[in-house]
Amino acid sequence: MRRTHAEPVMGTVVSFDLVTDGVDAADVDDALALACAGLHEIDDVFSTWQPASPVSRLRRGETTLDECPPEVAEVLDRCARARDLTDGWFDPWAMPGGLDPTGLVKGWAAQRALAVLETCGVRSAMVNAGGDVTAIGGPEVGRPWRLGVRHPDDPTRMLAVVPLLDAALATSGTYERGDHVIDPWTAAPSSAGIVSASVVGGDLGLADALATALVAGGPAAARHITAIPGYAALMVSADRRLHVVGDFPGLPVGAGTR
Q: Residue 161 pLDDT > 70, yes or no?
């Protein structure tokens, strides 16, 4: 049996698609309730739009990291790792207005929600946080979840169809929200000429951060992604050429440049 749910949170909608075979219906209800409650708790902690959130207060210097909920230190540790892995192309500490871990938090939150479902006995599920997706199992035995990477100019045209089996896919781009990705070296909108970057790998939080880094730095960031085991990317440049970083799955044969 399948169970779906859509939860408005973190300024987007997080959707759940569960295969519930072998799991009691009440346990599924509890798992979804716990996962969604966790998402709202994370939003309350990390929202930069809520003036009283711990992260907003930390940005203004009104509190210390030690006084924040422990999740803040965990996320900032992950942000520091992503900054090191990308040689600074992902850097929440270099954002205008101060610390902003938004580029990692959404994916990290979705990954945590998936872990809650798994702990509660769900063995096959997909969590989609505004287009960033993490999954375990598949919709049927032996068949992975399949996610399309859309063309930046046409939502009905797919550049790749990515099979996800215990993996994650994150996309960052300028084609819907404009030049919102900041170059951490200049504090200005990115001039790397990348309109879309999709990253596949084992953890959605890291994939989310890497996708942001690729839009910010383009080829300069891409050479660092190739050194991260288990992660690969697909970039679309302003001239609409495809650029493949690593072994990105689901591409048509011969697509893009490497």
A: yes
